[in-house]
Amino acid sequence: MLQKKLGQRIADLRKTRHLTQVQLAKAVGCSVDFISLVERGVNAPSVARLEDFARAVKVRVIDLFTFPGGKPKGIRRRTNKRTA
After folding, report:
1. Residue 27 to residue 81: CA distance in whole angstroms
2. Alpha-carbon distance 23 to 50, whole Å?
3. Greater confidence, 26 or 74?
4. Who contacts 49 (Cβ-Cβ below 8 Å, separation ≥6)?
5. Local structure of residue 29 (DSSP, 8 states)
């Protein structure tokens, strides 16, 4: 599920920046086939390659994982219920 969301997010950012898959592939340094697989959620870029994708669409890496329309999930702290 995360892989599909990431792929859709990359596709959306690419389109917003008016880039073709060919242009994105060139900027990232990979094949157009790989871009297609990533955007369809079939494959996912490596952690190292995420920086290339982010740079190509002019966002921070964390922004690749900011999915619109989803409810943001906060970090919960566990409370320690020790009795002294």
Report:
1. 52
2. 16
3. 26
4. 28, 30
5. T
Cβ distance 45 to 53 under 8 Å? yes
Q: Please say whether the beta carbons of 10 and 56 come within 8 A.
A: no
- The end-to-end CA distance of the chain, in Å, is 44
Q: Please provide the size of the chain in residues.
A: 84
Neighbours of 76 (CB within 10 A): 6
pLDDT tens sequence across 17-31: 999 999 999 999 999
CA pseudo-torsion sign 21, 44, 39, 59: negative
Task: Indicate the residue type of 37.
Answer: L
What pTM was computed for the model?
Answer: 0.78
The pLDDT value given to residue 69: 73
Report the pLDDT value the prediction gives residue 73, as an integer from 0 to 100.
54
